[in-house]
Amino acid sequence: MELRGELCRLRPYRGDDADALRCAADDFMVARWMSRRFPHPYTRADADEWIAIASSAALSFAIEVGGSLAGGIGVEPLGGERTGSALFGYWLGRRYWGRGIATDAARTLSDHALRDGGVRRLEATVFAPNVASVKVLQKCGFGLEATLRAYYLDRADAVCDGLMYGRVST
Ligand SMILES: CC(C)(COP(=O)(O)OP(=O)(O)OC[C@H]1O[C@@H](n2cnc3c(N)ncnc32)[C@H](O)[C@@H]1OP(=O)(O)O)[C@@H](O)C(=O)NCCC(=O)NCCS
Q1: What distance in Å separates the CA atoms of residue 48 and residue 31, rounded to the nearest whole number?
Q2: Is 134 part of any domain?
Q3: pTM to 2 decimals?
Q4: Going by CA atoms, what residue is nearest to atom 5 of ligand 1?
Q5: Which of 7, 17, 121, 156 is most open to solvent, judged by the fewest CB atoms within 10 Å of its CB?
Q6: Domains contained in the chain, number
Q7: Whose CA is closest to atom 41 on ligand 1?
Q8: Is residue 36 part of a domain?
Q9: How many A from CA of 134 to the centre of ligand 1?
Q10: How far, in Å, from the CA of 5 to the mean position of ligand 1?
């Protein structure tokens, strides 16, 4: 399945994305406020591993802009007592920043997941200095639900609050 935004296309990863994925993702400024599950440095083997994982996930997409892989976005369903809730995350290669692409991608996927994807609630916890990501979430209808004080240690060893944002399907 693929989803069309106004500025980007969300499509499944392909095996031949590995070089473009490594190239866009291997950047300290991209990794800085991401989960440590996002490797840094980001190698070709990391790209191959991610493509294999993402290819079996229903709602994990490459963000494509002008025919090139620009980043990634996904919804990761939680289980057990949190069934119906899901984590929401996204990133873009630095050359694509500042053009509204993340907002477009996040709006497209969050709308789809909550409307047709069997998801009741999306949540994302942002490193507080990541102002651009906070704005993306706010513009996509997510609300601030909690400030987790001194929650994160970022990749530059700075302690940061975590800002938990959520959006539900009503
Ligand atoms: C966060 C990220 C996805 C934003 O992508 P983007 O495409 O540049 O975002 P947009 O262009 O849609 O901009 C969203 C808003 O943030 C603002 N913004 C962008 N960069 C900013 C910055 N460095 N500081 C403050 N605001 C910024 C934009 O002006 C826009 O707000 P506006 O509509 O009021 O003008 C991108 O910076 C990124 O990939 N960062 C690294 C990975 C990451 O942190 N992912 C999120 C983890 S929670």
Answers
A1: 18
A2: no
A3: 0.97
A4: 102
A5: 156
A6: 1
A7: 30
A8: yes
A9: 8
A10: 17
Q: What is the CATH number of the domain that holds 54?
A: 3.40.630.30
With the most atoms of ligand 1 within 8 angstroms of its CB, the residue from 8, 36, 42, 92 to mutate is 92
| Structural domain span for residue 33 | 3-123
Joined tokens for residue 75 = 């919804």
The verdict on residue 105 lying in a domain is yes
The per-residue pLDDT for range 104-135, each reduced to its tens digit, is: 999 999 999 999 988 999 999 999 999 999 99
Is there a domain that residue 131 lies in? no
The closest residue, in CA terms, to atom 34 on ligand 1 is 135
Do the Cβ atoms of 114 and 167 come closer than 8 Å? yes
Polymer length in residues for the chain? 170
Burial of 73 (C-beta count, 10 Å sphere; 0-12/13-18/19+): buried
Instruction: Look at residue 117 in the predicted model and tell me its pLDDT.
Output: 86
Give yes or no for residue 100 CB within 6 A of ligand 1: yes
Q: Does the beta carbon of 91 sit less than 6 angstroms from any atom of ligand 1? A: yes
Q: Within a 10 A sphere around the Cβ of 83, how many other Cβ atoms?
A: 11
